[in-house]
Amino acid sequence: MIKPYLMFNRECKEAFDLYQQAFNGKIIAMQKYGDMPPNPEFPVAENDKELVLHAELQIMESGSIMGAAGKRDSKADGIVCISVNLESEDRANSAWNILKEGGTIQYDLKPTFFAKLHGSIKDKYGVTWMFTVEWRNSCGMGEMIID
Fold it and tell me: DSSP for the chain?
């Protein structure tokens, strides 16, 4: 499945509230950095704990957008990336290895608390790809949904 993923500089919640109103949409997920399990490799400052780690907004019956907030330079990093959920680690690694040639790894493809594999890469054409291989029948982001 492929979905647009909007990468905001700290204002994801405000943007998604606006998009929800504009499209009469439904917030499917809204996790904050403070919801993450503690990780010494990824410390979260106290003033960043209310920022959106991951959000999904259903804007049409069969379509949604996703987003996150962080400390980003939207001019350099861009605001839109393509989120690709792949069914297998082999398929993810194969596509990743092709796109990394001449590209820039932004977050290495590796296991996380919410996915078997997750990572992002900017290809040699400047397109940012976010890869996710989800856990099946296990605890993951789906259990962190907030209504």
Answer: -EEEEEEESS-HHHHHHHHHHHHT-EEEEEEEGGGSPP-TTS---GGGTTSEEEEEEEEETTEEEEEEE-S--HHHH-SEEEEEEES-HHHHHHHHHHHHTTSEEEEEEE--SS-SEEEEEE-TTS-EEEEEE--SSS-SGGGG---
